[in-house]
Structures are given as structure tokens and as C-alpha cells.
Amino acid sequence: MYISHLSLTNFRNYGRLELELSPGATLLYGQNAQGKTNLLEAVYYLATTRSPHAEYDNQLLNWDAGQSEELVVVGRLVAQVQTAAEMKRLEMRLILERNGRARQGSFRREALVDRRKMRLMDLLGHLRVVLFLPEDVQLITGSPGERRRYMDITLCQIDAAYCRALSQYNKVLEQRNALLRQIAEGSGSLDVLPVFTDKLVNLGSQILRRRALFLAELARETQRVHYELLTNGRETIRLQYVPRLAGNGTVEEESVALGEWLQAAEASLATIKTRLAEAVRQAQPADIARGATSVGPHRDDWRFLLNGRALSSYGSRGQQRTAILALKMAEISWMTAVTGEQPILLLDEVVAELDAQRRAALLQTVQSAQQAILTATDPAMFTAEFLANAVSLKVENGRISYAESTGSPDQ
Hints:
Blueprint: E1 2-11, E2 14-20, E3 24-29, H1 36-48, H2 63-66, E4 72-82, E5 87-98, E6 105-113, E7 116-118, H3 120-123, E8 129-132, H4 138-141, H5 144-156, H6 160-185, H7 193-230, E9 237-242, H8 253-263, H9 269-290, E10 301-306, E11 309-310, H10 311-314, H11 317-339, E12 344-348, H12 356-368, E13 371-376, H13 384-388, E14 391-396, E15 399-402
Parallel strand pairs: 3-13, 3-14, 8-12, 12-13
Antiparallel strand pairs: 1-2, 1-4, 4-5, 5-6, 6-7, 9-10, 10-11, 14-15
């Protein structure tokens, strides 16, 4: 798949942008803070309904538009996406409505596919991307929440059933936690708790199983890429699933063993339900005391093992970057195998972070992709051969123009 046209209105520093895109590699270059990353963010947002950078969606609205006196401010992201089967028009609207001339107002999002309004969840899967960021190393060194977010975003792009189960699980979790707080305060009924617990276990077991199988599949390809392409057979890497079915949240032998059992695809859904139900039952007294559910997929984690040791604790910065590169390249192969189409690659200033061997391996992947969009401050870091086969676009203050050497007109 590839994007043939991208339109942005009141998004970040783009007041208005109409951009034709071609299959193959497109290089966006220019100084920092000119809009290169914002364009990648727009594509990623259309694919995932999430921003990799903004904490709140209303931060994505163009600053000048947001400061205007208009009662309704609309940001639009529109992409024409060509797949093997059809052309689709995807649109996301960011709508700020003010009450009178008050600066504060209500904010909402609308998703449209071929001009028909959809639930945000139904936008997922129409456009699939793999995003490379310099800060991706946080998947190794950061919090479990960041690693869960990676799993959820990747899976939701290709598995609608998983995404529905996750959405429903989060709602049930919120309801169960509210009831636990009420029980702790003496105003809630214990008789109602099993209703939410049963729903939590049914949905949670589906999520546990899918995550385990996903990590097992991704781990095999990550090891292949890491061993054969990036380290010349010197190092091995594993992705280890660590489901949290103990209330204290520590990485215990039991949790690791449970993750290996799940990843080995030996567990039936019924068996997983039984294990999760027992863990929730045992944690119930403590959960009532704290007013929150302490076990389940919302506490999951996973980690990298390099030559059998935790990469977060024992790996060098270079080894960590190599592991992330292997993971992302494996994600491309995995997504292609599952869907039958290559995802669009989005690379934000990552080439400069790599040594010659790893840069060559990444650029080979980029050049074989149906579409890849890269950013850089200096095109000189790329080979003449790469530049000759890529479309180079200069980004300056929210405006995009073709490189002079192409002789193409301004956009």
C-alpha cells in the first residue's frame, strides 16, 4: 500500500498542505522545527488514531487557528491510500467548538472512510505503518506502559478483534475499579463484583493469548534479522513475555514461566481463563483495599534478552539501538506476512544514529518498501545512489517544495 495524496488543514504548523506522494522512498529534509516530523506524525495519526508525540489530541491543532476568534476550528488530515485491491479516502477531523467567545470549548474527533463517518476504531487497518524514532530505545529502557502501548498499536493495525477486546477490557476495568473503590468506602455491593470480574477474565484471557502469540511470532523474525543482518552471528536476542498475574508486580519466576507457556502456544483459551480467574480471585481482598485491579493484561510487560541477559540492564547503548532496529525491521516482515501488503515506513531522523553496517541494512529495507517517508536535516548523509532513486522534498516553515535538482514545481 501507499499514500498517493496527503492533505493537511490546521494541523501542527501546516495551515494548508496538498502533497502528491509517489511509491518508493521520499526524503523530507530541512532544518529542525520546520515541519518534517509533523508530516510523519499526520500519517501515523491517520493509521493509528494516536500521536507518537502529543499528550492530548487538541495539541495537534494549528496554533494560529486555535488562537483565532472562530467559534469552530477544524483540523483535517486526509489521505488517498492505494492498496492492492482499491483506492480509499481516509479522513480524521479534529474539531474545537467554543461557547460564545470563551477560549475553552469542547473538543472531539471524527473519522471518515470514503466520506462516511466511522467509529475511530473502524479507521484502524485501512492504513498500516511502521514508525522508526530515535527515542524507540525507550521500548527497552522505559516503563511497561510504553511496551504495552507498542503491542497494542501494532496489533490494532491488523487485528480488529483484538482491538475490540482491548477497548471493551479497558471499559470493564474502569467500571470494576470504580466498584472496588465504592466497596472499600462501604457504598458498593460485593454481589455485583463477580459480574465485572467475569467480563474482565473473559476479555483479558483473549488479550493475553493474542499478545503472547504476537510476541512469539515477532521474536522469531527479530532474532533472524538481528543474528543474520546486524551482528554477523555474534549475538542472539529474545523477546520474553512477562504477564503480570501477581499483585506485587515484580518479575518473578512464575510470571516468566507463564509467559513462556503462553508464547509456546500450548495454552487453550479455557486454560488461560482458569489461570487468570484464579489470579484475580486471590488478589480480590488486596484489590478492594487499594481500590484497583492489580492483575491482568493492563499490568503486562515484555523484555529483550541479549545472549540470555536483560538488555535493559546489561546492554550497551549500541546494542540497544541494534535490538530496536531488528525489532522494527521484523515488524515490517511480520505485518507484510500477516496482511499480504507492505506497511508504509516512517523514519524520523534515525539514519544519523546508525553506524555504516546498520545504516546499509536499514536503507536496503527502505529501498525495497513500497513506500517509505524519511526525514533528515542533511541529505548528504545518504548515498548518491539512494538519493538518485528517492524523491527529495525540502521542508521550510510548514511549506514543502521539490529539491531544485529535480526541476519539479513548488507544492
